[in-house]
Write a structure and sequence with these properties.
CATH topology of the largest domain: UDP-n-acetylglucosamine1-carboxyvinyl-transferase, Chain
Bound molecules: shikimate-3-phosphate
Strand content: 25-35%
Low-confidence stretches: none
Number of strands: 23
Distance between the termini: 27 Å
Strand order of the largest sheet: 2-15-17-16
Number of helices: 12
Length: 435
C-alpha cells in the first residue's frame, strides 16, 4: 500500500482535461458488445474499473480493437440475442459496482447460459439483491450469496416485461432492468422516486430502440437490435469534482476544466458548491432536461470563501459520488452543513458515511454521523490535517489529497493507489495545476 503526503500548497492554476467518464465508458462498452454492427467508442476511460468491463465482454465473445488514438476502440459486438460465445463461467468484475449491476441485465435474457459474477473484497460487500428482485420478477433465475451479496449467479432465461417501482435511487438498478427489458417479451417500465443519472436512457434513445420517458417513468420494449455506430465519452464530472474542490479551497486558485460532461443528472455537486459560494462558471445543463446527447463544455472555477448548506432529497442522486466532497467543503465553510437522505452512501466502494466521518474527524474536522448522512460544522478556518486512510476507496484517496493541499499541516493519504480505479492520472494532473 502506498502512502503519499499532500502538503499545503500555493494556488492551483491552469487548464485541465478530466479523464473520460467512468459511467458512460462502462455503458459504451456494454452497448457496443450488445450491437450487431461495429461501434466506435471515442475517449474510453483506461482505468481498473473500465478494464474489468472490457475483459468480461471479451470473454462473452465481443472483439475489441484498440486504435492508435488513445481511448479509441472499435467494439465488434455479438448482438443483443446472439448466443454468447461463453455460455457460462466466472466473470471477474474487479472493483466495479456498475459492471456487477448492469451486466446481469443482459445475461439474464440469454437462455441456457450460466454465469457467476464475482470481484474483489470490496465488491463482495456490495448489495445485489436490488438487481435480483426485478430480474426474478422478469422470469430470470438469479442467486446471490445469502440472497444479498456477490458472488452472483445468473442463469439465462426467457424474460417477460414488468412494471417496476425502484425502491432505491440507483441508476445501476434502473439500467439493469432497462437492459433486461430489451430482451423481455412485451414492455418493461421503471418508475424512479427521483431522477438518477440517465446515461443509459440517452444511449437507448440514440440506439433507436422503442423507448419512452414520462417524468420519472421510463419504458422500453422488446428489441431485435441496437442501431448505434459511435459513442464519444465526455470528461468525467465526478473526477473533475476533485479539482473543483481543490480550486474552491486553496486561496488564489483559478482552474479551467475542458471537455467535461455537464449532464444535469451528474452535476448536483457543482450546484451545491455554487450555493456554498464557490465561483463555478459554465453551461451546466438545465435541471430536468432530457436529451439524446451528453452535453459537454467548460467550467471555470475560482477560490472563494464558503458558507454552509443543506443537501437532501432530489439533490442526493445527482451528487451521490461527490457527497464526501460536500463534507470536505463543509469542513472549510462557515456554519453547519447537513447532508441527509443519503443512506445509499453506505453501499459504495466503502461505507462512505462512516469513512468520511472518521477520516475527516482524524484531520480535525467537526463532523458527525447522522445515520442517513452527516453534519459538519466549520468556522471558515482550515482543519489541522493529519492522516487519511483511503480504505481501498478511490474517491476517499482523492479526497484525502485535496484535503492535504488546503489543511494547515497537510495530509498523508494511506492507500493512494486506489485512485487508479477511476482516475489513474490524478496525481500527475494535480501536480500540473500546482506548477
Ligand atoms: C453509477 C451509479 C451510482 C454511482 C456509481 C455509478 C452508474 O450508483 O454511485 O458510481 O454508473 O450507474 P448507484 O446506482 O448504486 O446509485
Amino acid at each position: 500500500m502506498s502512502s503519499v503526503r499532500f502538503e499545503p500548497s500555493g494556488p492551483l492554476r491552469g487548464r485541465f482535461r478530466p479523464p473520460p467518464d467512468k459511467s458512460i465508458s462502462h455503458r459504451a462498452a456494454l452497448f457496443g458488445a450488445m450491437s450487431d454492427e461495429p461501434v466506435a467508442v471515442r475517449n474510453y476511460l483506461d482505468s481498473a474499473d473500465t478494464r474489468s468491463t472490457l475483459h468480461a465482454l471479451l470473454i462473452l465473445g465481443a472483439a475489441i480493437e484498440e486504435e492508435s488514438i488513445p481511448g479509441t476502440l472499435v467494439i465488434r459486438g455479438v448482438g443483443l440475442h446472439t448466443a454468447l460465445e461463453a455460455t457460462g463461467g466466472r466473470l471477474d468484475v474487479g472493483n466495479s459496482g456498475t459492471l456487477l449491476r448492469l451486466l446481469p441485465g443482459w445475461l439474464a435474457g440469454q437462455a441456457g447460459g450460466e454465469w457467476t459474477l464475482d470481484g474483489d473484497e470490496s465488491i463482495r460487500r456490495r448489495p445485489v439483491d436490488r438487481v435480483v428482485e426485478p430480474l426474478v420478477m422478469m422470469g430470470a433465475r438469479v442467486q446471490a450469496r445469502g440472497d444479498r451479496l456477490p458472488p452472483l449467479k445468473v442463469y439465462g432465461s426467457d424474460l417477460h416485461g414488468i412494471d417496476y417501482d425502484l425502491p432505491v435511487a440507483s441508476a445501476q438498478v434502473k439500467s439493469c432492468v432497462l437492459i433486461a427489458g430489451l430482451l423481455a417479451a412485451g414492455s418493461t417500465s421503471i418508475t424512479e422516486r427521483t431522477h438518477s443519472r440517465d446515461h443509459t436512457e440517452r444511449i437507448l434513445r440514440r440506439s433507436r430502440v422503442p423507448f419512452e420517458r414520462d417524468g420519472l417513468r421510463v419504458t422500453v420494449s422488446a428489441t431485435d437490435e441496437l442501431e448505434l455506430d459511435e459513442i464519444t465519452v465526455p470528461g468525467d464530472p465526478s473526477s473533475a469534482a476533485f479539482m473543483v474542490a481543490a480550486a474552491c479551497l486553496v486561496p488564489g486558485s483559478r482552474v479551467v476544466i475542458d471537455n467535461v460532461g455537464l449532464n444535469w443528472t451528474r452535476t448536483g455537486f457543482m450546484r451545491i458548491a455554487q450555493r456554498m459560494g464557490a465561483v463555478i462558471v459554465g453551461d451546466l445543463e438545465e435541471v430536468d432536461t432530457f436529451a439524446d446527447d451528453e452535453p459537454v463544455g467548460e467550467l471555470d472555477v475560482a477560490h472563494a470563501p464558503l458558507e454552509a448548506t443543506t443537501v437532501a432529497g432530489d439533490e442526493v442522486p445527482t451528487s451521490i459520488d461527490e457527497l464526501t466532497l460536500v463534507a470536505l467543503l463543509g469542513a472549510f465553510a462557515e456554519g453547519e452543513t447537513v447532508v441527509s437522505g443519503a443512506e445509499e452512501l453506505r453501499h459504495k466502494e466503502s461505507d462512505r458515511i462512516t469513512a468520511v466521518v472518521e477520516e475527516l474527524s482524524a484531520i480535525g474536522a467537526d463532523i458527525e454521523d447522522t445515520g442517513d448522512g452527516f453534519t459538519v460544522r466549520g468556522d471558515g478556518a482550515p482543519p489541522a490535517g493529519g492522516r487519511i486512510d483511503a480504505r481501498g476507496d478511490h474517491r476517499l484517496a482523492m479526497l484525502g489529497a485535496v484535503a492535504g493541499l488546503a489543511c494547515g499541516n497537510g495530509v498523508e493519504v494511506v492507500g493512494m493507489e486506489a485512485a487508479a480505479v477511476s482516475y489513474p492520472e490524478f496525481q500527475q494532473d494535480l501536480a500540473a495545476l500546482l506548477r
